[in-house]
Write a structure and sequence with these properties.
The protein is of the alpha/beta class. Helix content is 45%, strand content 13%. Helix 4 (143-166) packs antiparallel against helix 5 (174-210).
Length: 692
């Protein structure tokens, strides 16, 4: 997904992944709203100055821009190429004779010259047909095409020599044969390549004269960089004027790639940007480029430079050219996270299963549904109380998976009878419980609602699963459940305890999976920062030292599925890597928009909100990570659920029904001894200290 940022200083450039027009709001002017258009054409309302759309333009339209109108007819074009090759052969042989004999051709050779010419023309036409060089694309000539032209020339000369020998004609001088071959080959290649070269040169000059050219560096001078550069040269639908390349491979520093210099490594990137007035950076290092992306973003800090990147695999180039795959940098590009891959044995665990997913319209729930359908589950029931979200989810999946394996049901997990009816009707084998209230400040203001949904709703799901013989229940937890300082975190901790307790007293397999923040989820910090940057700022953070764990939604869900079917244990924690400072994320997102933090976009510190911590943890002091681990999944052993768990949960739910927030907090503290809520005075004092 690309990030719709506003323009500042330089024209805004955006290519979506996948192609999906977005609105771009400029600081001093507004771009017209874009509408969906046929592939290869800019959307209605877009301009060459404002937007860049995919370069994968229809090949016929490209050819028509290169060829004059009469040659757009294939038959006429083929006939013209044969005729030009014939004329080229005749002229080359005549000129070779004149050069060899300095303008005074010997009578013996002059007498057979007409026969030579007729014979050579026939051989040249035959070799053109054999090499298929009459089926020439003037839009895409390359090295292989040059080899074909050379091969055709050599073949034609060889046929000519054989023919003269077979017809017992006077053998032409060897120097004439060589000269004719060189002249014919050069002329045939020249008129085939000249239209494209002229078009590229004219387009570059026109772009520069128009004032729309964006001086561009490509980071990566390898195969991907060269492929991107060639694709940009072929296309008219972009404003990039490539000045040169940056690559850390020292052996390339003295090279020219497509006639453009390799200036050096990333150490000279900033100096090169300033020296050549670069406005755009295109990153063309398709594999494991997260470290490079971060370094490029850091080098461009304080410079009004737009940065785009290719996707992470050449596989995508099979259907679309690399220029059309360029996308705006997103926070996901900064994370060194690898996609989760399921081996054949793991995939077999999903095939044919009946699965129920709660919270299916949310970010995590919808991705669980998507991956389960992709892994071949037999039937999937998506449950959510969000009517509109559930409707859109159903429409999306019925288009993507038209085999009818998905059903949707509108339900509130706080309604015990409704949950029980769904379980009895659908009879799932596996349940993924992702439904929850997750916003910390809102749950601090409404602790009773948090208990009704996150505790009561979870209990209803677990009891229904136990009664109907469900084999596996996976509870989606959070790092906020560790030593919680918020009502939301405490309720999720209780959800973990209830899942483990039900698993211990029944035959079902229960697994609570705990992880940190996911990038781009509904209501998370990344979409908020996007909106604030698009609006011109300010970007708000709660504290300059706040750190959070992050991973992408597909990776988190992939590891959740591995935890569910890997039978690792009752509580699994996902390896989130190192936590990231939120203020650093804000600065990087501003820089990725081509803006300068604190100059173009202000960063405002608002103070910690009620229930919020500076640092989150994944494992509490009374828990222990066991040696049993699988890649990014760690198994945690913790204290067993308290013996009076269900009595305390029932009392907690009564307090929530009675709308008694003080008693709710007291019972949360009883159930979760590590729960240490921030009092109102502490929150106000923390906010005042940050503001000062």
């Amino acid at each position: 997904m690309s990030i719709p940022f506003r323009e500042t200083g330089h024209p805004r450039v955006c290519v979506d992944r996948p192609a999906k027009p977005v609105n771009h709001t400029a600081r001093t002017r507004r771009e017209p709203t874009t509408r969906a258009s046929p592939p290869g054409r800019p959307p209605a309302g877009s301009s060459r100055r404002g937007l860049y759309f995919p370069a994968a333009v229809n090949s016929m339209s490209r050819r028509q821009r290169v060829l004059p109108p009469p040659l757009r007819n294939p038959v006429l074009r083929f006939a013209t190429i044969f005729a030009v090759d014939a004329a080229t052969a005749a002229f080359s042989l005549w000129l070779a004779m004149q050069l060899r004999f300095e303008g005074r051709v010997m009578p013996a050779y002059a007498a057979v010259l007409p026969q030579y010419i007729a014979l050579l023309v026939g051989c040249r036409v035959l070799s053109t047909w054999l090499a298929r060089t009459h089926r020439w694309t003037f839009s895409y000539p390359g090295l292989q095409d040059a080899v074909r032209v050379f091969g055709s020339a050599v073949t034609g000369t060889a046929l000519f020599l054989v023919a003269t020998y077979m017809l017992r004609l006077l053998s032409p001088p060897r120097s004439v044969v060589v000269l004719e071959l060189l002249l014919s080959g050069a002329l045939m290649a020249a008129y085939r390549f000249a239209p494209r070269l002229a078009h590229v040169y004219w387009r570059r000059m026109a772009l520069r004269r128009s004032g729309d050219a964006r001086r561009t560096l490509i980071v990566g001078a390898g195969a991907a960089g060269e492929m991107l550069f060639r694709d940009l040269q072929r296309s008219d639908e972009h404003p990039y004027d490539v000045v040169g390349f940056i690559d850390d491979n020292r052996t390339k520093w003295s090279h020219l790639v497509g006639g453009r210099p390799v200036f050096g490594g990333l150490s000279v990137l900033r100096r090169t940007i300033e020296r050549y007035s670069i406005s755009n950076i295109l990153i063309a290092i398709p594999r494991d480029s997260h470290e490079v992306v971060r370094e490029v973003v850091n080098c461009c800090a304080g410079l009004n430079v737009q940065i785009k990147a290719l996707p992470v695999s050449f596989v995508y180039f099979q259907e679309r050219g690399p220029a059309s795959m360029l996308h705006d940098l997103s926070p996901e590009d900064l994370l060194s996270r690898r996609r989760v891959v399921f081996d054949e044995h793991e995939r077999e665990s999903f095939v044919g299963r009946r699965v129920l997913v709660t919270g299916a319209a949310g970010s995590i729930g919808s991705e669980i549904c998507h991956q389960l359908l992709g892994l071949g589950v037999g039937r999937l029931l998506a449950v959510d109380m969000n009517e509109n979200g559930l409707y859109l989810l159903e429409q999306r999946f019925r288009r993507e998976f038209p085999d009818g394996r998905i059903d949707v049901q509108l339900a509130d997990i706080r309604d015990r009878e409704r949950v029980q009816t769904l379980f009895e009707t659908f009879r799932p084998q596996d349940v993924f419980h992702a439904a929850a209230h997750k916003h910390v400040p809102l749950m601090e203001a409404a602790p009773c609602e948090a208990v009704k949904n996150n505790v009561g709703g979870t209990r209803h799901v677990l009891e229904a699963a136990e009664r109907t013989g469900v084999e596996c229940v996976v509870f989606i937890s959070t790092d906020k459940a560790v030593a919680p300082t918020s009502v939301m975190g405490a309720t999720k901790r209780i959800g973990e305890l209830m899942t483990r307790a039900v698993a211990r007293r029944s035959g079902l397999r229960g697994c609570a999976v705990r992880f940190g923040n996911v990038l781009g989820s509904d209501g998370s910090v990344v979409p908020l920062f996007r909106q604030q940057i698009e609006a011109g700022g300010p970007v708000t953070i709660t504290h300059p030292d706040v750190r959070r764990y992050f991973m992408t939604i597909p990776e988190a869900v992939g590891l959740v599925l591995k935890s569910a079917y890997g039978r690792f244990g009752e509580l699994c924690v996902l390896n989130m890597g190192e936590p990231i400072r939120i203020i650093d994320l804000a600065r990087q997102m501003i820089a990725m928009a081509g803006l300068v933090p604190e100059r173009d976009i202000r960063i405002v510190v608002t103070g910690l909100r009620p229930g919020e911590k500076l640092n989150e943890e994944l494992v509490s002091e009374d828990e222990q990570v066991t040696p049993q681990a699988d890649g990014k999944i760690q198994v945690v052993n913790g204290p067993p659920p308290p013996p009076d768990l269900w009595e305390l949960v029932a009392e907690l739910e009564r307090a929530a029904r009675d709308e008694d927030p003080d008693r709710v907090r007291m019972l949360l503290k009883t159930l979760v001894p590590t729960y240490t809520p921030l009092e109102g005075e502490q929150v106000r004092a923390s906010a005042a200290a940050v503001a000062s």
